[in-house]
Amino acid sequence: MMAGSGVSRREVLAGIAAGAAAGMFGSLSSAKAAVSEMVWATWDSNGHPEYIAAFEAQTGVKVKLSYLSSEDAQFAALKTGTASDWDMINPSLNGSWRYIKAGLLEEIDMAKIPNAAKMYDVFKTTPKVLDASGKQFAVPYLWGLNPIVYRKDKFESEPDYTTLFNEKYKGQLAMRDYALESIGIAGLVAGVPRDKVFLMETK
């Protein structure tokens, strides 16, 4: 997309800001028969009690939470074996490839996850959770982390990511200090083709 033409949150997040859930023990639907307890390594914003309670009630499986400090720390813990008790993790969609390449995940049987049929099409078709042979190791579930929050009395129309580069708002805007989104957003606004931006982000 050319600079100045407006880059929507939906477009950029569809490719670079999705999250994924990856299981080291297989599909969740088999959890009831396989285990009585599972350990989920996740971010503190994801482990809401209402989510956990519903899962536990449906499956009879007790969920223990292990909170993450960073993506790199999560990968290192798995790589060194210090997180051998984890059953499910939350890698970023663009970071899933290194877990798959390192052989840290088990293949997921999507036939045992019926709700997968309700996912966005872009989540169903992304190759970012597959290995070279097409086996799937993670499930995208999160659309994005960077909503645009703004005051309607300060904007004549709904802002998009080109607004971040508008001199009119210099010193008045902020965004999360995270290279994954920052590089992708800047690239799209500058006119770098979308497939090139996303390829750069996954390398």
Notable characteristics:
203 residues; alpha+beta; 2 domains; three-stranded antiparallel β-sheet; 8 helices; disordered N terminus
How would you briefly describe this protein structure?
It comes from Rhizobium brockwellii. This protein has 203 residues and is of the alpha+beta class.
How would you characterize the overall build of this protein?
- The chain has eight helices and five strands, in the order αβαβαβαβααβαα.
- The chain is α+β, with helices and mostly antiparallel strands and 203 residues long.
- A three-stranded antiparallel sheet has the order 4-1-5, with no helix packed on it. A two-stranded parallel ribbon has the order 2-3.
- Helix 7 runs antiparallel to helix 8.
- It is globular and about 60 Å long.
Could you outline the blueprint of secondary structure elements for this entry?
Layout: H1 9-16, E1 19-23, H2 31-34, E2 37-42, H3 49-59, E3 62-67, H4 71-80, E4 88-89, H5 96-101, H6 121-125, E5 139-142, H7 179-189, H8 194-202
Parallel strand pairs: 2-3
Antiparallel strand pairs: 1-4, 1-5
